[in-house]
Amino acid sequence: MRDASFSIRRLSIAAALGLAALTSACAEPPPYRPGPPPGPGPGRPPPGPPPLAGTSWRAVEIAGAPVGPGPAPTMAFDRDGRVSGDTGCNRFTAGYSQGRHGLTFTQAATTYRACLGPGGQVESRFLTAFNGVTRGDVHRGRLVLSGRRGSIVLVRN
């Protein structure tokens, strides 16, 4: 007798759980209510260029010409508004800000290692163009820094 009441109790619990599952599956979903349109606000980036923080790049073209022989200049953007990298010969660092109206840099500071030959030529071209940058755009996976002293085209590292 004890076994029969135990089985009936188990069967009753299983039936109650099954009924609860069926009724919740048949419940109507809440109506769709569109949220606010995308744009500036808490948790949303402002419209404009994609954020560069946390990305690193390698130069493939400076002032309309391929980088040429020697190491290519590189740059990495950190989350604290600093960009740093290699000029092809020396290390450099600068401040940057990116907002709705574009990308701006502070004057670059570099190490002072003697740079003879191709590395020195690449560095000279890179720093001349970099210190004249007035605009930065990401287009088709390339970062194009342009300004009054030429442009620098970079690809993701």
Outline type = elongated
How much helix, percentage-wise, in residues? 10-25%
Count of individual beta strands: 10
CATH topology of the domain at 56-156: Lipocalin
Sequence stretches where pLDDT stays below 50 over 5 or more residues: none
- Most strands sheet: 10 strands, antiparallel
Question: Average pLDDT across residues?
Answer: 81
Question: Which structural category do the helix and sheet elements fall into?
Answer: alpha+beta
From the alpha carbons, calculate the radius of gyration and give it in angstroms. Answer: 30 Å
Number of helices: 2
- The level 1 CATH classification of the domain at 56-156 is Mainly Beta
Q: Explain this structure to me?
A:
The chain has helices at 2-25, 118-130, and strands at residues 56-62, 65-66, 74-77, 82-86, 91-99, 102-105, 109-110, 133-139, 142-147, 150-156. By secondary structure, the chain is of the alpha+beta class. Strands 1, 2, 3, 4, 5, 6, 7, 8, 9 and 10 form a ten-stranded antiparallel sheet that branches. The protein contains two helices and ten strands, in the order H-E-E-E-E-E-E-E-H-E-E-E. The longest helix has 24 residues, at 2-25. It has a domain at 56-156: Beta Barrel (Lipocalin), CATH 2.40.128.270. The termini are far apart.
